[in-house]
Amino acid sequence: MSDIENRTRDVMMKVLQISPQDISPDISRKNRPAWDSLKHMNLMLALEDEFGIEFSDKEIVELNSLHFLVDALRTKRS
Q1: Contact in structure between 2 and 70 (CB atoms under 8 Å)
Q2: Domain count across the chain
Q3: Could you give the CA distance from residue 45 to residue 60 in angstroms, rounded to a whole number?
Q4: CB atoms within 10 A of CB 14
Q5: pLDDT by 10s per residue, the chain, length 78
Q6: Domain around 63
Q7: What's the CATH code of the domain at 33?
Q8: Whole-angstrom distance, CA of residue 54 vs CA of residue 35
Q9: 28, β-bridge pairs
Q10: Distances in whole angstroms, Cα of residue 28 to Cα of each of 22, 33, 49, 62
């Protein structure tokens, strides 16, 4: 696991209030009831703070899984 993925998972655990074993590689808003719209916005803000980046409105809507989040963060960090 990369540093970006580990940090993303840590933020997800805190914001979504879930345990590490609940964060599977395919976790998404569709399959995780705790990941509602309010927590999604809190997650986006927490990730922006953690990585010192900013997501566009379009990105916020589309970043609905661990996979998409890690890919977007890798792109923004490069």
Answers
A1: yes
A2: 1
A3: 10
A4: 13
A5: 799 999 999 999 999 999 999 999 999 999 999 899 999 999 999 999 999 999 999 999 999 999 999 999 999 988
A6: 3-77
A7: 1.10.1200.10
A8: 20
A9: 65
A10: 11, 9, 21, 11
